[in-house]
Write a structure and sequence with these properties.
12 helices; alpha/beta; 33% helix
Length: 415
């Protein structure tokens, strides 16, 4: 009997099973794979191979200003139209027929090729072409407003700014011309650029990949990015590209999803697939850890780093509505080894588990989005530098007497 039938006829059994699996509530796919399969999975790998089922088989247009040529470099070196590594069909020893599965491969430059960038471009184009596309922008608009607040915290005017992975202009709509005088908007989706929200800031739209920005070095005073870099295969390379196009003393302010994003959906799908099909495949893409993010920014050359985290919880009527909104945002899974289809029984079982394990008293279910906000500066001689080692005049042990020291110093000045 499937899980959803158990919930309707004997809900207590579902509750008991869910309590048994509750320990996996915040485990990552790699953690569960280690427990279930008995072998170690690389930290950044999302290529968890699906187990053999035990019961049944798986049946641009460019809007460029006149002075754009001063900032653009030849696009021949861009990787927008580069052919990715062909699919590799996994050979399965089972006698049952299985659809071909695409393995995670490595590119010629040694970068782990996790995401199908061409598929992500199609997903974003499809989402941007929806007649009610603005109804799915609530999350990116909220995060875009928080990034704009961080831009306002920097007390300076930016003559030229770059928005990497701009979408429909989720950051620009919160900015004004007193802070940013000119803006370049870059996205992989041409449909999103066609529907960019009009603002008072003069904006040029460029179709380009985040991994290879078609701009000259030292071109921009400010670079911002809103929930786009988590789909990049070469994240260190993307940070290096942002560092390259920034002027000295320029600042990068961005946001991307963290590792706890959609843990409710991930665990519900994994538990349902384990019960119904005897194994699971990744349905939620891998995300970067907060400590790795700081290391990557530092390795790219940024200094005076600031990385903070926040969680946004959105309530939905059910799991199916969560997945529908993710599709409308253009955030569907695009891993190379993604499963071609999700069975109806597994989907209904996952919805029942989701509601039982995470449901609210009002009948809704939560979806958690962990957001990492990052700020990094390109070095310049005018920036503050740490004092030399051993130059301190007060020890940390004397901090508890700071009031006495301050009053004593004021008394000496009066004399």
């Amino acid at each position: 009997m499937p899980w959803y039938a158990l919930e309707m006829s004997a809900g207590n059994h579902v509750r008991a099973l869910c309590r048994t699996f509750a320990q996996f509530a915040r485990f990552s796919p790699c953690d569960i794979a280690n427990c279930h399969m008995g072998y170690r999975v690389p930290t950044y790998s999302c290529g968890i191979p699906p187990l053999t089922p035990r019961s049944h088989g798986h049946p641009a247009p460019l809007n460029i200003w006149r002075f754009a040529a001063n900032y653009l470099k030849p696009v021949s070196s861009c990787c927008m139209h580069t052919q990715l590594t062909p699919w590799v069909q996994r050979i399965n020893n089972s006698s049952r027929s299985h659809p071909p599965v695409r393995d995670i491969t490595s590119r010629a430059d040694g970068v782990l090729n996790v995401f199908d960038r061409n598929m992500k471009r199609k997903q974003k184009n499809w989402a941007a072409a929806l007649p009610n596309a603005e109804h799915y922008n609530y999350l990116k608009e909220e995060v875009g407003g928080r990034i704009a607040d961080r831009v306002f915290d920097v007390s300076r005017v930016f003559p030229l700014a770059l928005d990497v992975g701009c979408g429909r202009g989720y950051i620009a709509q919160h900015l004004n011309k007193e802070t940013v005088e000119n803006l370049f908007a870059v996205d992989i989706s041409e449909n999103a650029l066609k529907n960019v929200v009009k603002t008072e800031i003069p904006t040029s739209c460029v179709v380009a990949d985040e991994e290879c920005l078609p701009f000259k070095e030292d071109a921009f005073d400010l670079v911002v990015s809103n929930l786009s870099l988590h789909w990049v295969n070469d994240l260190p390379g993307a940070f290096r590209e942002i560092y390259r196009v920034l002027k000295q003393d320029g600042v990068f302010i961005g946001a991307m999803f963290g590792g706890e994003t959609l843990y409710e959906l991930r665990c519900s799908l994994q538990l349902a697939e384990l019960e119904r099909e005897g194994g699971f495949s990744p349905h939620v893409s891998p995300f970067t850890a907060v400590n790795d993010l700081g290391n990557l920014l530092s390795r790219a050359g940024f200094n005076m780093l600031t990385v903070d985290t926040d969680e946004i919880e959105v309530r939905y009527p059910g799991m199916l509505e969560v997945m529908k909104d993710l599709q409308g945002m253009g955030e569907s899974n695009c891993c190379w080894n993604r499963k071609p289809m999700l069975h109806r029984d597994t989907m209904l079982a996952a919805a029942a588990i989701y509601k039982e394990m995470y449901g609210n008293d009002d009948g809704t279910v939560p979806a958690t989005f962990q957001i990492f906000y990052m700020i990094g500066w390109k070095p310049h001689i005018s920036q503050a530098k740490p004092a030399k080692r051993g130059s301190a005049t007060v020890s940390f042990g004397a901090l508890e007497k700071v009031n006495e020291l301050v009053s004593k110093a004021k008394g000496e000045k009066v004399k």
